[in-house]
Amino acid sequence: MSARFDELPNFALDRPGPLVRLLGNVGNFHDAARWIADLPYGRNSRPIDYRLVPIEQRGTCTTKHAFLAALSHEQGCPLQLLVCFFDMSGQTHPALAETLTRAGLASIREAHCLIRFEGKIFDLTGLPPSDPLPEYSDFAQLPLDQLDQKQALHRAALATWAEKKRISMPVQRLWSIREQCIRDLAGDKRQEERS
Question: Quick one: how far is CA 93 from the chain centroid?
Answer without folding.
Answer: 14
